[in-house]
Amino acid sequence: MPSRSATAHRNTLRKQLRLKRRQVSPGDRATCAKQLTQHLRHEQLLLNSRHIAVYLPADGEIDTGPLIEFLWSLGKSTYLPVLVPFADKRLWFSSFARDDALVTNRFGILEPERVHYRRIRAAALDLVLTPLVAFDASGHRLGMGGGYYDRSFLFLKRRHYLRKPRLLGLAYEFQRTPRITPQPWDIPLDAVATENRVYHCTR
Fold it and tell me: In the Cβ-directed half-sphere of 148, how many Cα atoms lie within 13 Å?
Protein backbone atom coordinates (compact mmCIF):
# COMPACT_ATOMS: atom_id res chain seq x y z
CA MET A 1 0.00 0.00 0.00
CA PRO A 2 1.29 3.52 -0.78
CA SER A 3 2.22 5.66 2.22
CA ARG A 4 -0.08 8.41 3.36
CA SER A 5 2.43 11.07 2.26
CA ALA A 6 2.81 9.49 -1.22
CA THR A 7 -0.96 9.41 -1.64
CA ALA A 8 -1.23 13.04 -0.54
CA HIS A 9 1.47 14.04 -3.03
CA ARG A 10 -0.30 12.28 -5.90
CA ASN A 11 -3.60 13.90 -4.97
CA THR A 12 -2.01 17.37 -4.77
CA LEU A 13 -0.26 16.92 -8.11
CA ARG A 14 -3.49 15.67 -9.67
CA LYS A 15 -5.43 18.68 -8.39
CA GLN A 16 -2.82 21.21 -9.56
CA LEU A 17 -2.45 19.81 -13.07
CA ARG A 18 -6.17 19.30 -13.63
CA LEU A 19 -6.69 22.96 -12.77
CA LYS A 20 -3.88 24.02 -15.11
CA ARG A 21 -5.37 21.96 -17.94
CA ARG A 22 -8.75 23.63 -17.54
CA GLN A 23 -7.11 27.06 -17.69
CA VAL A 24 -5.63 26.55 -21.18
CA SER A 25 -7.27 29.10 -23.49
CA PRO A 26 -9.34 27.91 -26.49
CA GLY A 27 -6.75 29.37 -28.88
CA ASP A 28 -3.84 27.62 -27.17
CA ARG A 29 -5.87 24.40 -26.97
CA ALA A 30 -6.42 24.43 -30.75
CA THR A 31 -2.77 25.21 -31.47
CA CYS A 32 -1.50 22.45 -29.19
CA ALA A 33 -3.89 19.93 -30.75
CA LYS A 34 -2.53 20.70 -34.22
CA GLN A 35 1.09 20.52 -33.04
CA LEU A 36 0.44 17.20 -31.29
CA THR A 37 -0.95 15.77 -34.52
CA GLN A 38 2.06 17.03 -36.51
CA HIS A 39 4.46 15.22 -34.17
CA LEU A 40 2.54 11.96 -34.63
CA ARG A 41 2.20 12.04 -38.41
CA HIS A 42 5.33 9.91 -38.85
CA GLU A 43 5.21 7.99 -35.56
CA GLN A 44 5.65 4.27 -36.22
CA LEU A 45 3.64 3.25 -33.16
CA LEU A 46 0.66 4.90 -34.81
CA LEU A 47 1.36 4.14 -38.48
CA ASN A 48 1.93 0.42 -37.83
CA SER A 49 -1.37 0.05 -35.93
CA ARG A 50 -4.72 -0.75 -37.49
CA HIS A 51 -7.15 -0.86 -34.56
CA ILE A 52 -6.62 2.24 -32.42
CA ALA A 53 -8.48 3.34 -29.29
CA VAL A 54 -8.89 7.11 -28.98
CA TYR A 55 -10.71 9.29 -26.45
CA LEU A 56 -12.77 12.46 -26.52
CA PRO A 57 -11.32 15.14 -24.22
CA ALA A 58 -12.92 16.03 -20.89
CA ASP A 59 -11.81 18.10 -17.90
CA GLY A 60 -9.37 20.14 -20.00
CA GLU A 61 -7.54 17.18 -21.58
CA ILE A 62 -5.60 17.96 -24.74
CA ASP A 63 -7.91 18.02 -27.76
CA THR A 64 -7.82 14.84 -29.85
CA GLY A 65 -10.05 16.12 -32.69
CA PRO A 66 -7.33 16.83 -35.30
CA LEU A 67 -5.55 13.56 -34.47
CA ILE A 68 -8.73 11.51 -34.87
CA GLU A 69 -9.38 13.18 -38.23
CA PHE A 70 -5.83 12.24 -39.27
CA LEU A 71 -6.40 8.61 -38.25
CA TRP A 72 -9.60 8.49 -40.29
CA SER A 73 -7.74 9.93 -43.31
CA LEU A 74 -5.35 6.96 -43.05
CA GLY A 75 -8.22 4.48 -42.97
CA LYS A 76 -7.55 3.41 -39.37
CA SER A 77 -10.30 1.71 -37.35
CA THR A 78 -10.93 3.83 -34.25
CA TYR A 79 -12.63 2.96 -30.98
CA LEU A 80 -13.81 4.82 -27.90
CA PRO A 81 -13.69 3.51 -24.31
CA VAL A 82 -17.11 2.59 -22.92
CA LEU A 83 -18.43 1.63 -19.51
CA VAL A 84 -20.47 -1.55 -19.20
CA PRO A 85 -22.22 -2.67 -15.99
CA PHE A 86 -20.71 -6.18 -15.79
CA ALA A 87 -17.06 -5.27 -16.50
CA ASP A 88 -15.81 -4.78 -12.90
CA LYS A 89 -14.54 -1.24 -13.59
CA ARG A 90 -12.71 -2.33 -16.72
CA LEU A 91 -13.13 -0.58 -20.05
CA TRP A 92 -14.47 -2.11 -23.22
CA PHE A 93 -14.11 -0.33 -26.55
CA SER A 94 -16.70 0.46 -29.21
CA SER A 95 -15.99 1.33 -32.84
CA PHE A 96 -16.23 5.04 -33.57
CA ALA A 97 -16.87 6.76 -36.90
CA ARG A 98 -17.51 10.38 -37.84
CA ASP A 99 -21.32 10.31 -37.82
CA ASP A 100 -21.85 7.98 -34.83
CA ALA A 101 -24.37 9.15 -32.24
CA LEU A 102 -22.85 9.80 -28.81
CA VAL A 103 -24.32 9.76 -25.32
CA THR A 104 -22.97 10.97 -21.99
CA ASN A 105 -21.97 8.32 -19.45
CA ARG A 106 -22.21 8.65 -15.67
CA PHE A 107 -18.89 10.55 -15.54
CA GLY A 108 -20.07 13.12 -18.09
CA ILE A 109 -17.86 11.65 -20.84
CA LEU A 110 -19.16 11.04 -24.35
CA GLU A 111 -19.27 7.48 -25.64
CA PRO A 112 -21.00 5.77 -28.61
CA GLU A 113 -24.70 5.04 -28.35
CA ARG A 114 -25.89 1.39 -28.39
CA VAL A 115 -22.36 0.20 -27.67
CA HIS A 116 -23.35 -3.40 -27.01
CA TYR A 117 -23.60 -4.04 -30.75
CA ARG A 118 -19.95 -3.19 -31.54
CA ARG A 119 -17.91 -3.81 -28.42
CA ILE A 120 -14.43 -5.34 -28.39
CA ARG A 121 -12.04 -6.22 -25.59
CA ALA A 122 -8.91 -4.21 -24.82
CA ALA A 123 -6.71 -7.13 -25.94
CA ALA A 124 -8.08 -6.85 -29.52
CA LEU A 125 -6.57 -3.37 -29.99
CA ASP A 126 -3.19 -2.56 -31.54
CA LEU A 127 -2.70 0.86 -29.94
CA VAL A 128 -4.44 2.82 -27.19
CA LEU A 129 -4.22 6.60 -26.95
CA THR A 130 -4.63 7.30 -23.27
CA PRO A 131 -5.51 10.49 -21.40
CA LEU A 132 -3.48 11.33 -18.32
CA VAL A 133 -2.93 13.96 -15.66
CA ALA A 134 0.87 13.62 -15.34
CA PHE A 135 3.68 11.49 -16.78
CA ASP A 136 7.43 10.99 -16.44
CA ALA A 137 10.26 9.84 -18.72
CA SER A 138 9.86 6.22 -17.63
CA GLY A 139 6.26 6.09 -18.84
CA HIS A 140 4.67 6.19 -15.42
CA ARG A 141 1.24 7.77 -15.65
CA LEU A 142 -0.93 9.57 -13.13
CA GLY A 143 -4.57 9.32 -14.15
CA MET A 144 -7.80 10.67 -12.72
CA GLY A 145 -7.73 8.20 -9.86
CA GLY A 146 -10.45 5.77 -10.93
CA GLY A 147 -8.04 3.04 -12.06
CA TYR A 148 -10.04 2.12 -15.17
CA TYR A 149 -7.08 2.09 -17.57
CA ASP A 150 -4.81 0.20 -15.17
CA ARG A 151 -7.43 -2.50 -14.55
CA SER A 152 -8.27 -2.73 -18.26
CA PHE A 153 -4.64 -3.36 -19.29
CA LEU A 154 -3.48 -5.40 -16.30
CA PHE A 155 -3.03 -8.39 -18.62
CA LEU A 156 -0.01 -6.62 -20.18
CA LYS A 157 1.99 -7.28 -17.01
CA ARG A 158 1.81 -11.00 -17.79
CA ARG A 159 3.08 -10.58 -21.35
CA HIS A 160 6.84 -10.75 -21.91
CA TYR A 161 7.07 -11.07 -25.70
CA LEU A 162 3.94 -9.97 -27.60
CA ARG A 163 3.05 -6.73 -25.84
CA LYS A 164 -0.21 -5.65 -27.44
CA PRO A 165 -1.83 -3.19 -27.40
CA ARG A 166 0.85 -0.53 -27.08
CA LEU A 167 -0.04 2.45 -24.89
CA LEU A 168 0.57 6.01 -26.09
CA GLY A 169 -0.28 8.82 -23.66
CA LEU A 170 -1.41 12.26 -24.88
CA ALA A 171 -0.76 15.37 -22.80
CA TYR A 172 0.38 18.96 -22.65
CA GLU A 173 4.09 19.51 -22.12
CA PHE A 174 3.43 21.05 -18.69
CA GLN A 175 2.06 17.68 -17.52
CA ARG A 176 5.56 16.17 -17.64
CA THR A 177 7.00 15.73 -14.14
CA PRO A 178 10.49 14.63 -13.00
CA ARG A 179 9.30 11.38 -11.45
CA ILE A 180 6.09 9.59 -10.58
CA THR A 181 6.50 6.82 -8.02
CA PRO A 182 4.67 3.85 -9.55
CA GLN A 183 2.17 1.79 -7.63
CA PRO A 184 2.02 -2.02 -8.02
CA TRP A 185 -1.09 -1.80 -10.18
CA ASP A 186 0.20 0.93 -12.53
CA ILE A 187 0.64 0.00 -16.20
CA PRO A 188 3.50 1.99 -17.80
CA LEU A 189 3.17 3.73 -21.15
CA ASP A 190 5.27 2.96 -24.23
CA ALA A 191 5.38 6.61 -25.28
CA VAL A 192 3.84 10.02 -24.61
CA ALA A 193 3.10 12.73 -27.17
CA THR A 194 2.77 16.41 -26.33
CA GLU A 195 2.58 19.57 -28.41
CA ASN A 196 6.41 19.70 -28.24
CA ARG A 197 7.53 16.16 -29.09
CA VAL A 198 7.06 12.40 -28.72
CA TYR A 199 8.76 10.80 -25.70
CA HIS A 200 9.65 7.13 -26.09
CA CYS A 201 9.67 5.84 -22.56
CA THR A 202 12.52 3.94 -20.93
CA ARG A 203 11.85 1.36 -18.26
Answer: 16
CB 112 within 8 A of CB 94: yes
Residue type, 163: R
When the candidates are 3.40.50.1580, 3.40.50.1470, 3.40.50.10420, 1.10.1740.10, the CATH number that belongs to 4-200 is: 3.40.50.10420
Element containing residue 32 per DSSP (H, E): helix 26-40
**pLDDT tens for residues 181-201?**
888 888 899 999 999 999 999
Confidence label for 89 from pLDDT (cuts 50, 70 and 90)? confident
Would you kindly state where each structural domain of the chain is located, as residue ranges? 4-200
pTM higher than 0.85, yes or no? yes
